Amino acid sequence: MQTIAVVNQKGGCGKSTTAINTAGALAEGGKRVLLIDLDPQAHATIGLGFDPDAFDHTIYDLLTNAGKDLATIGVRTNLERLDLAPCNVLLASAELELGGVSGKELLLGGALRQTRDVYDICVIDCPPSLGVLTLNALVASTDIVVPVQVHYYALEGLKRLLETIRIIRDRFHPYSMESIHLLLTFVEERRTFSRQIQQQMRDIFGDLVFDTVIHRDVRVAESPSAGEPVLTYAPRSKAAADYRALAGEILTGAPVAGLAPHSRVRRGIQKRLTTLFEGVWIPRRMPRINPGSIEST
Question: Which end of the chain lies in a sparser environment, N or C, as judged by fewer CB atoms within 10 Å?
Fold first, then answer.
């Protein structure tokens, strides 16, 4: 089972939206998918139309009660082949409760190994922090997707995250993730600044940056109020097309046919991003998620 952690300690980068819609697009393409809501804000749970306070058991119980497993907390969603491991605000206390527990970083990974024959892919929506919960997700994951808002401030936090990932890969071998990829979000192609950030990110990180980008789309902001992903709320929207393209790129490791080529920008922003990332660990090219194909629906 491939396990994809969607992580960024900066809020507002489209992390939960990416987790929900990527999981939905993979399920839509024929994969058996589990979405784990590991964010105490419960945005993934809410975004799929559930009341976080309506559950007797959540991912909190899985992490704090050795007698629980994913089979007892997983729920079916309205999307075929997509299950959800929900959470609520109680998960916030897990950071304190697990503080003195030996092997606390391995709890989620151990639980996932029990369901590796049930699902093809697991997607984890991480909290906007680098605490115990995110650490569990990173250690348990084979792949990491980092949504990065096309904004200068958003890039500052990326430096710290990359260093954290490096430490985890060194310390928790063989639990280390196999691939790391950056996903550019809130992209506005008609804005010169947005295009400049895109180009410089690709210059620095190369093919660690997905060819697929997620464009700014008002339908994405509307869909949580309807309790469904943008894939079903506005299936013909640009955002829905973007997430389907992302799912295709995740499975095949190659750009999806029909994506517009990225234009070259001659003029740079006022500060070159290469100076921002001087001395920062940048992972070398690693294998992408196991090749596969999206079944036609």
Answer: C
**248 Cβ neighbours under 8 A, 6+ residues apart:** 29, 212, 256, 294
The answer as to whether 295 is a domain residue is no
Cβ(227)–Cβ(5) below 8 Å: no
What is the mean pLDDT of each successive set of 10 residues along the chain, which is 297 residues long? 89 88 95 96 94 93 83 92 95 86 87 88 92 90 89 74 80 68 86 78 87 91 89 92 94 62 40 64 65 52
Residue 207 token pair? 């093919």
Q: Note whether residue 292 is domain-resident.
A: no
In a domain, 268, yes or no: yes
Q: How far is Cα 295 from Cα 4, in angstroms, rounded to an integer?
A: 20
CATH number of the domain within which 103 lies:
3.40.50.300
Q: Which residues pair with 82 in a beta bridge?
A: 33
| Domain encompassing residue 151 | 2-276
How much helix, strand and coil, in percent to the nearest 5, is found in the chain?
45, 15, 45
Number of domains in the chain: 1
Residue with tokens 């507002």: 12
Q: 59 near 41, Cβ under 8 Å?
A: no
On whether residue 281 sits in a domain, the answer given is no
